[in-house]
Write a structure and sequence with these properties.
The protein is an alpha/beta fold. About 40% of the residues lie in helices and about 20% in strands. It starts with a strand and ends with a strand. Mean pLDDT is about 85; it is low at about 120-130.
Length: about 230
Amino acid sequence: MGNKILVVEDEPALLEVLRYNFLRGGYQVVTAGDGAEAVDKARQEKPDIIVLDLMLPKLDGLEVCRIVRRDMTMPILMLTARVEEVDKVVGLEMGADDYVTKPFSIRELMSRVKAMLRRGAMPPLYQGESGVIRVGGIEVDPARRLASAESAPLALKPREFDLLLFLARNRGLVFTRERLLESVWGYQFAGDSNTVDVHIHWLRSKIERDPHRPIHLVTVRGVGYKLEG
């Protein structure tokens, strides 16, 4: 049997469409129609990944995310119909690994789920790497997954570390959002690249003296981002 997916959605028609497509894709599928049931199913079934709607009865998706993240580490892909950027950022802050905005294509969703599962099964980016990478005042230790800026330790989330490591290994090179999604997140489907912008924003708040005037993690207008010494 394939990986086990917990699909949490309160719209019965959409829930059935998602269940059908994931079953066709070879996955084991567990479903929940509200937030309280989602928490119970996550604890009982221990799925490999959760596809989680934001707007749910009983407990909303943000609260489910917060509760699940207290003692479980499986990837969480949030489905949101909201367009406000703050909702997406809060979802990521609560522990979601990424989000897809409704309406979405089933192809995109399947691609995202496959990439997130593949990412979890892949050797980490730092495997086999030795030595500290230095870019200006930034230091990244791949083997110990530690980073610092101006000798001050950085408290980075896993994806923030992976993004910083990738850019540090390729210092001075400019990468589009799509290329970063492919290289750091493992996505092969273009989709929504705002996830990259959110993580860039978080990284800047931690490595730059003035995040509003970055000198290390630089935007190349119309192209993407690069890390400079």
